[in-house]
Amino acid sequence: MMASSSVTHHLESEVPYDESKLNHEQDANENEPQPLARAETSQSNIGPPESLWHEIIFITIVCMAQFMTQAALGMGIVPAHIIGASFGTTDPGELSWFPAAYSLTVGTFILVSGRMGDMWGHRLMFVAGFLWFALWSLLAGFSVYSNRIFFDCCRAFQGIGPAMLLPNAVAIFGRTYPPGLRKAMAFSLFGATAPGGYIVGAAFSSIFAQLVWWPWGYWVLAIVCVAFAGLGYIIIPFLPHSKSEDDHLPVMVRLDVLGATAGVIGLVLINFAWNQAPLVGWSNPYVYVLLIIGFLFLFAFAFVERSAKCPLLPRSIFTGDLAWVLSCIAAGWSSMGIIVYYFYQFMLVIKGDTPLLATAKFSGAAISGAIASVTTGILLGYLPPSVIMFCSMSAYTVGLCLVATLPVDQIYWGQAFFASLITPWGMDMSFPSGTLLLSNAMPRKHQGLAASLVSTTVNYSISIGLGFAGTVESHVNDGGANTLKGYRGALYMGVGLAAGGLVISSCYMLVNWLKYRKEKGEKEKEQGASP
């Protein structure tokens, strides 16, 4: 309640955007590391809703993109053993495909969806994303009459819906709010829905799986997605198309179809190889052949982008803070996928908990994540991104260490409870800070791209991280005889990824601090030399 009151107070009391005031603040702090909320940006072309209640409803509907994305992820992890049993499989490698197939397409198709939103309208893509999400959720439920392969395919196609939702939802915020506390809080609330969405999806899918029939979870998800599609069309205002010098070019050129095709194929093949390897082994020739072909397609993507008239990833955007932030996000969120997946495997398989009980043990993440997001929204106006990222990577590392060393006979209120509280601070500090940095740094016509970069990194990292962890698990579990040893090996892989992010963020902080000291010294020298 305290957090909700604080957010409402800030939304009510914030003064209108004052460009002269912003410029004055930037001039006064030109030699200091700049917090994300003060990053320079172009003016948004629509303002926030005039009514507070309308604004609350608007923010809620847009945030449902993140909420439902994470809910569907939870639906593939928590009841995985019950779903697998209906298909006659208990193989950990096959079960891991339930979340991995979904996250694979969420991360892979985001860039293309962001470009489509820039071209045809973010509201249109938002509504279409929910409708696509609903269709394949419906079919995923009916896959109970087919087989596991069809369910995996439905999960993969289901992930294209969130890929359409995420970049366009963030772009809607980016084009609605000018820089300032209001925009920072909107992005933070968007990130705050991630842990809550995951817990709600895990809880309801567990209820249906344990007490009714698991397909009902996916059918209800389809109904909810259709409802949000209708509400989005009604509540979200029409966003005028941003005029560009490229508007006269053919649609295929503006979509960068050649580059998009090469990029998507490359990302899919690399991810497929890493997630299939734990199931069939790296000794199987087609696994490493697909991996090599995937990298070749990525090289082709880079080559095509150099000469493309409308590249998906303009080279000019990869400068300074962006490379550091995206590297941290990749390391952190790949470790996040590992801790979430193997926390549940530990509770379900090693401890013998039911899916509902395991979800209850991780439910503290929803409350902790909400507090983390609101806190981050406030800190974004005062701290540089390097500090935010360092805190985020620290949370990931501590959370992974707690779960990786969790004793089997320890009570829940020991390491498991604190891990569920600490881990959300990693995701809810890294996502809004990275998104806000890119959104503020890019012009209006690239708001979809700004959102796409962070969302692509987040979701693709979740999927590829599970592939890394699964490979380690399959090599250290003594051929399946020592399940606990395999889980710990996978979790230590997550510790390594999180620690890598911590090292990168530490270097980022050091570079920023040295740059600040140098600029401050030069300014003092200039002031001393002047009469």
TrEMBL record:
Superkingdom of origin: Eukaryota
Disordered: region residues: 1-47
GO cellular component: membrane
Gene3D superfamilies tied to this protein: MFS general substrate transporter like domains
Stretches that traverse the bilayer: 56-83, 95-112, 124-144, 156-174, 186-212, 218-239, 251-274, 286-304, 324-344, 356-380, 387-405, 448-470, 490-511
Primary location class: membrane
Pfam families per record: MFS_1
GO terms for MF: transmembrane transporter activity
Domain Major facilitator superfamily (MFS) profile: start-end pairs: 58-518
Keyword terms, alphabetized: Membrane, Transmembrane, Transmembrane helix
Location within or outside the cell: Membrane
Membrane topology category: Multi-pass membrane protein
Family matches, as InterPro entries: MFS (IPR011701), MFS_dom (IPR020846), MFS_trans_sf (IPR036259)
Annotated SUPFAM superfamilies: MFS general substrate transporter
Sequence ranges of Basic and acidic residues compositional bias: 9-27
Name of the molecule in the record: MFS general substrate transporter
